[in-house]
Design goal:
The longest helix has 18 residues, at 205-222. With 278 residues, the protein is of the alpha+beta class. The chain has helices at residues 11-14, 97-101, 118-122, 129-134, 140-155, 162-174, 182-186, 190-201, 205-222, 231-237, 243-254, 258-264, 268-272; strands at residues 2-6, 17-25, 36-37, 44-47, 53-58, 61-66, 69-71, 78-80, 86-93, 113-115. It has a 6-stranded antiparallel beta sheet. Strands 3-8-5-6 form a 4-stranded antiparallel beta sheet, with no helix packed on it. The chain starts with a strand and ends in a 6-residue tail after the last helix.
Length: 278
């Protein structure tokens, strides 16, 4: 298994792109074939060979994508088919970025996987998926600089308005503040804040706050061995009223109880690790 994660170097690109990441599953790797992708408020651009097939399953619904595709913000947990070897370069956009950088006529529908032509997206036949994947052998820094270069002309066409600017203020403080108090914190009416947030994000502050909590919780659990997990302590640390409250939360967000999750460890962070910045 090979992986890395790196932040953009270009400041204009970094306004909208949180990080680039790379993941390769080689034939000899014995990792879990169907890892679970937990809910995420960000859009990910997946750059992969045109003949590679991926599937994303939630309960009785299955979405498939051949070649490069978008994973749009999702409230659901997807089971991904990673049973075959693959190479992926991922571009993780910041939450809400697609509102400003989205292409004409394209929205970011929740829980949706959508095929994308990389060369058409970036306006150059040079910048296709094969080109970027061939750069991997030159190293992460080289690959990411080329991604900066390729993305910059598109991102420079982005638009900002009062709604996107307000959401940029909301997101960094959302995890640590009560939603009902956001109006007071930002000196805006609560109605204005909620309307702008919904317009930009396509979901509520409560939904995004829940995803932020889940990410923090999963990062903590990843660092613990099974015998070191004390669910009452975890519940208290992350602000749950008690352990049953935590159990209900995990069943709602990842469709699993704490005990089953600890036994399965089947989310992407468990299977592929917590990518550290290169």
């Amino acid at each position: 298994m090979k992986n890395w994660k790196k932040q953009p170097e270009n400041e204009e690109v970094a306004k909208y792109v949180e990080c680039y990441w790379f993941l390769e599953k080689e034939p000899e790797d014995n990792s879990l074939n169907y890892p679970q992708l937990n809910p995420d408020p960000s859009s990910h651009l997946i750059i992969t060979p045109p003949d590679t097939v991926f599937s994303y399953e939630h309960k009785d619904s299955v979405q498939t994508a051949t070649g490069s595709h978008w994973i749009f913000p999702h409230l659901k947990t997807f089971a991904m088919d990673h049973s075959s070897p693959f190479q992926i370069i991922g571009v993780k956009f910041k939450a809400g970025a697609f509102y400003s950088v989205g292409l004409q006529g394209i929205s970011a529908p929740l829980d949706h996987i959508s095929k994308v032509d990389i060369a058409k997206l970036l306006g150059s036949q040079t910048y296709n998926s094969k080109f970027f994947l061939e750069q991997i052998t030159e190293g992460a820094t080289h690959t990411c600089r080329l991604l900066d270069e390729a993305l910059l002309p598109w991102l420079l066409q982005s638009h900002e308005d009062k709604h996107s600017r307000l959401v940029r203020q909301i997101l960094p403080i959302l995890a640590d503040n009560a939603i009902a108090e956001m109006g007071d914190v930002l000196h805006r009416s609560q109605r204005t804040i909620e309307r702008s947030f919904s317009k930009v994000m396509g979901m509520s502050m409560k939904q995004v706050q829940s995803m932020m909590l889940l990410e923090s919780l999963l990062n903590d659990l990843y660092l613990l061995k099974d015998n070191d997990i004390h669910w009452a302590d975890i519940a208290s640390k992350h602000g749950f009223s008690d352990q049953p409250h935590l159990t209900r939360y995990l069943k709602d967000t990842i469709d699993n109880t704490p005990a089953k999750y600890a036994k399965q460890r089947n989310l992407t962070i468990d299977v592929y690790g917590d990518f550290e910045f290169d």
